[in-house]
Amino acid sequence: MKREQIQQQHQQQNATDQDEISIAQQNSEVNQELLGETDDLLAEIDGLLEENAEDFVKGFVQKGGQ
Amino acid sequence: MSVRRIMGAETEFGVLAPGNLSANPTVLSAQVVSTYDSLFHAELQAHSTAEWGYSSESPLSDSRGTEIPEKDAHVTQLTHQANVLTSEQIAAEALQDSGLYAERLNWDAVTMNSILPNGARLYVDHAHPEYSSPEVASPMDAVKWDAAGDWIAAQVVQRSADSPVLETINLYKNNTDSKGQSYGSHENYQMSRDTDFDDVIQGLLPFFATRIIMTGAGRVGIGTKGETAGFQISQRADFFEREVGLETTIRRPLINTRDEPHADSERFRRLHVITGDANLSHVSNLLKFGTTSLVLALIEKGVAPHIVLADPVHAMHTVSHDLTLSEKIALSSGGEVTALQIQREYLEAAEEYFSGVDEETDQVISLWNEVLDALETNLFSLANRLDWVAKYSLMRQYVAQGIGWDNPKLAALDIQYSDIRPQKGLYFKLVELGRMQILFSPEEIADAARHAPENTRAYLRGEFIKRWPEELISVNWDTVVARNQLQTEVHRLTMDNPSAFTAEQTQQVLNSPTAVEVIESLNNVQKEK
Fold it and tell me: What residue spans carry the region label Disordered (chain A) (predicted)?
């Protein structure tokens, strides 16, 4: 293999690596964003939840219907 | 044939008095019905004063034999009744009523039954308040008028919370307490009487066993009492024990054989479907009514896929417990298929025969297609559309934080998803946060609580309730009985075709000054035919 070709291949390899890094970064940004959203959502939900989940669940007794 | 047909939704709400956990559920249910009955009558009175000039007659107060100028006073009075009456006393009173007035047999006991201005029925069904939607002519309308029932339930809850005397009641649109009890959310579909019921059974069993992958509401706990920790797709699945039967409360069957058409029994059958989960998600609910209506059309046309499951009841349990949607279901012929494959068979048949027949059919077919694809390839992309995926997606985030499936927090989340209060229910919170798609705005839903669909007989029923409540003796799905207050003669209208008595057909006769005249005009028209 000629050096030029190797060089090219190496450059391509670098380019691919960079692409991957860039994608990985994007992913991590997206994940961070998602994670942030998730935390926000769970915080919202936690604010709504019955104070004593165990008692609430125990007290939720229904008679059978159709 | 299309996705359009006469249909209706029934919701039995879970009922809880948080400050009085041992309260009798029948009494609580009676309070729910009575509270809304007085709320809408008070609103109508204000409305009719403006629109029909009834102020001097006070028709609504008169119909009860009491003078009730303020809605607060009325509710307080009802509170008093609800607090002192036991369920046995309420039942006894209803029975006594029916003895005194034969016409009132099932319908007119004030605290137990209420026919609403939107043509729906709100009543005490044993230990639960039940909302039965008006007859509608399409799946989209079924979703809208079912959501109207949730809005009505929320009004009642708000009222009980605001009142210093009423027992505070919370209502839940779910199907089980996970302690062994289940209550239903039923669908009704009008079918031609000509269709062989065996075809209906064969066509529906595989469909019902598998449609829950789209229409399930999600549930924490496996088994009727939640014996095993975990999450499953359907609220109702574990409560079904056999394939076909008449019962709805014990040994529940996938196909309910109740034959009570509330219409001309020679022409129509009303298929009473009891396998459904209570859906809050509009999209889940549209898929429930839309795809089922299409499958019924395939059956009526004689072109439903021929799939015979080895054990449909077992299959429904398996499908509900399989969050990977990959479990194989045994066919009676020996092969195996997945729930998704079965649903695709039905979808493809519907596409083949009904694509392009009308806009709403195409909408349901394309949604069905899209949702099956997403279930297969990108489940959590449906977290903003399907109840079970929304619930599952939320709970997985807690599980990822180390909370086990047996943690009461998740069981509480499950129940609270269905809390009907907009500021407390998790479904409504997701909508508020823009994380759940809706098909109708809150304003459109509130409007559907006040107005009946205009293209079914529910329209005429609603108009009778709104215009001449003081003349009505009894109102049923297919009859209206009225009497001029100064006379003894009773006038009866039979509405044996749910697609008739629409706004268009009754507009002219509704100009009459009295209900009796409307009934007589319509009876004359029917005689001439």
Answer: 1-20
What's the half-sphere exposure (Cβ side, CA atoms, 13 Å) at B426?
Answer: 30
Q: CA nearest B170 in A: which residue?
A: A60
Chain segment B505-528, per-residue pLDDT in tens:
999 999 999 999 999 999 998 888
Query: Residue B441 CB: number of other CB atoms within 10 A?
Result: 9
Average pLDDT, chain A: 67
Cα→Cα distances B65→B105, B403, B502, Å: 19, 57, 32
Chain segment A46-58, per-residue pLDDT in tens: 989 888 999 999 9
Confidence of residue A62 (pLDDT cuts 50, 70, 90): very high
Considering B394, B417, B440, which residue would you say is the last residue of a domain? B417
Number of structural domains (chain A) is 1
- Give the helix ranges, DSSP H, for B138-218: 139-162, 197-210, 212-215
B413 and B457 fall within a common domain: no
- Domain extent, residue A17, equals 1-65
In a domain, B92, yes or no: no
Selecting from A48, A59, A65 the residue whose C-beta is nearest the C-beta of B125 gives A65
- Provide the shortest C-alpha distance from residue A61 to chain B (in Å): 6
Judge if B412 and B279 occupy the same domain.
yes
Interface check for A5 against chain B (CB to CB < 8 A): the answer is no
Kindly give the parts of chain B with pLDDT less than 50: 48-88, 93-110
Residue-level pLDDT at B105: 30
User: What percent of chain A lies above the pLDDT cut of 90?
Assistant: 18
Catalytic residues of B: 125
Same domain, B222 and B370: yes
Collapsing DSSP states into helix, strand and coil, what is residue B472? strand
Distance from CA of B323 to the nearest CA of A (A): 21
Q: Name every chain A residue with its beta carbon within 8 A of the beta carbon of B394.
A: 41, 45
Residue B262 within any structural domain of the chain: yes
Whole-complex ipTM = 0.86
Chain A CB contacts of B412 under 8 Å are 49-50, 53, 56-57
The answer as to whether B86 is a domain residue is no
Do B350 and B461 reside in the same domain of the chain? Answer: no
Q: What are phi and psi of B339, to 5 degrees?
A: -60, -40
